[in-house]
Amino acid sequence: MIMFNDVPKFENLTEARKLFGMCKVLHDFSVKARREGILALEEGLDDNTGIYADLHGMLWDFFKLLMRYVVDGTDEGVVAGCAKYLIETTNANNDVRLTMMVIAEGVIAVQAGDSPRVVVGKMVSMLGWDGRKECLEYLKSVGVELEE
Length: 148
Known about the structure:
By secondary structure, the chain is an all-alpha fold. The chain has helices at residues 13-36, 57-71, 76-89, 94-112, 116-124, 128-141.
């Protein structure tokens, strides 16, 4: 895991829902990577339709950038370092920075070949107990089945 200092907490429910959506995306990508291999992930990077429809802008671009590094075979340390530097130098608010941190953790977990349950577990661990619970409830509502 990437170790971040001063992990912010959510101030805005709308932003939290975007983060929950990114957790769903990363869960789906981890399932696909385990079934079809890392290279198969490239074809899903330009698809932000359906459940991914409201995922766009800087967060989606950040996700795609990191995932393209992974698909290209970039070393995990380089991906993590790039992610950390981009997060630390962004002028975005705390909610966006937290979402970027969670995306980075998820991408690194997918790259490491972690199971979908572990990928989600690493991401939601950054949300605190209540945030974790809300995110897991959201994931369940959109069809993600995780063992507790």
